[in-house]
Amino acid sequence: MASEMKQIIVPKENAVFWMDKNGIWHNEHGKFEHPKIIAYFHKSIRKDDQGYHVYQVRDGCEEKVYFPYEDTALFVVDLKDSQTLVLNTTDMIALDPSQLFTQDDSLYVQTPEHRIKFGQRALMKMASHLEEKEDRLFVVLDGTPEIRQVQPIDQAHHCRAAGSTASMTFNTGHRPGCGQFFRIGDTGFYKGAAFLL
């Protein structure tokens, strides 16, 4: 019988990296700079009952690191064929205008599972499909005869994603348990966050 895979699970209060409101990864040394590392972290984002985390299986060990984020962990980074949203995880979802809403001059999409923010590049592409009339924002899609209003935050049917840390004050200095975190984390996400960035 195969032995169970070893697990390393790190709670977000012990994580040594975090995501800001623009979807940029940071650690105590500053912003992540290596494109391949950044892409790998984004692609590794998962969500479970405990919240968003980065996940990988490495050397027969399952690693989960729950991380703090200022606004949301998921971002629309591109718009494909004006009908498909490309996320920072590389997942793609269909654009549903009824799921769009605005808050603090930002555009979001609320799915049953996720609150997703439009990044600058995606927002620029989306701009050609947005119209403002009488102080209200509408989205117009190719082949769609009707104009649908983008709901402001107080009218949108949405909820904040579990685990959001919008009001969190980040402590980038010493954290309880941080030493143990580095000792068990000589490989994988831990090494990537601490030493490669």
Distance between the termini: 40 Å
Mean pLDDT score:
75
Can you give the helix content as a percent range?
10-25%
Any idea what the radius of gyration is?
19 Å
Give a short account of the largest sheet: 7 strands, mixed
Which shape, going by the Cα principal axes? elongated
Strand order of the largest sheet: 10-9-8-13-12-11-17
How is the quaternary structure best described? single chain
What fraction of the residues are assigned to beta strands by DSSP? 35-45%
pLDDT below 50 for ≥5 consecutive residues: which ranges? Answer: 154-197
| N-to-C order of helices and strands | EEEEHEEEEEEEEEHEEEEHH
Class from secondary-structure proportions: alpha+beta
Number of strands: 17
Task: Briefly characterize the structure.
By secondary structure, this protein is an alpha+beta fold.
Structural features, described:
With 197 residues, the protein is α+β, with helices and mostly antiparallel strands. It is 16% helix and 36% strand. The strands form four sheets. It has a seven-stranded mixed beta sheet with strand order 10-9-8-13-12-11-17. Strand 3 and strand 4 form a beta hairpin. It starts with 5 loop residues before the first strand and ends with a helix.
